[in-house]
Amino acid sequence: MHNEISKLAIVKESHQGKVRDIYDLGENLLIVSTDRISAFDVVFPDPIPDKGKILNAISAHFFKTTSNIVPNHFITDNVSDYPNELQKFKEYLDGRSMLVKKTRVIPFECIVRGYISGSAWKEYKKTNTIGGMLIAEDMQESQKFTHPLFTPSTKVEDGHDENISYREFMNRMDELLAVYIKDKSLELYSDAHDLLLKKGVILADTKFEYGTIGSQVLLIDEVFTPDSSRLWALENYEIGKSPDSFDKQFIRDYLENSGWNKQPPAPSLPTEIIEKTRQKYVTILKIITGKEL
């Protein structure tokens, strides 16, 4: 299907990311969310059934509900509104794609952390810092920060992203742009955190990406999905422990104990791990959107 779409005259070029396929339609892009899954920056050979549809639905939901905070690239996820040339692929595209504005991508991942976990917890244990920032208070794993932290990283297509300080982030772009992106990222996080908390979910951390059209800054890529966020069940949240999650941390935990060296090629995933991951994604879709798959 990827090759068939790429052959269309309307498609100028295509790009296969780790989990999404992107097709250039001129002024706009077609983003297709596949069922591929990646961890530790490596794509696995086994897909998670329906994962693409779940991530697409969650992103579309939040693009529609957060545009009052910051404009975004979302145009539509209704395939009937796509260009005529794409209608022959409706069955494949339906539910797992969206039409978006083409932007000039700002090459950073804008991470907001409300709780200490994952790589931030590992860094803190070693150096008492997170993203190069000294953390004065004595913290335990999964503890909430007094105020959410903005910890950017470089965006690398092949290889591992590099965490950088906010000062370095500001040095690599216009200062006003850096401040705007930080402020909007923190606002987006706080808004979603409060909303999800009422639904029994803790948004521990998440990442955003931005692009520009002229002087306008737009939120792009994906928003608050289980691939871009750490989502915990509130009912069993406990400081000092790693809570049950609705994201791909389940796969990361399995891989940490599997003996894999985190280098390509990725190993095959057991059927049980695939199914449990799928169920976590299905559950968070229902919690966030109120809709079944």
Tell me briefly what this model is.
The chain is an alpha+beta fold.
What is the total number of structural domains? 2
Gap from first CA to last CA: 22 Å
CATH homologous superfamily designation of the largest domain: ATP-grasp fold, B domain
Q: What is the CATH class name of the largest domain?
A: Alpha Beta
The residue ranges in which pLDDT falls below 50 over 5 or more consecutive positions are none
User: What is the CATH topology classification name of the largest domain?
Assistant: D-amino Acid Aminotransferase, Chain A, domain 1
- Count of DSSP E strands? 15
What's the average pLDDT? 93
Strand content range: 25-35%
Indicate the overall shape: globular
Q: Helix count?
A: 8
Q: What is the CATH-assigned architecture of the largest domain?
A: 2-Layer Sandwich
**Order of H and E elements:** HEEEEEHEHEEHEEEEHHEEEHH
Largest sheet: 6 strands, antiparallel
Backbone structural class: alpha+beta
Helix percentage:
25-40%
Radius of gyration: 19 Å
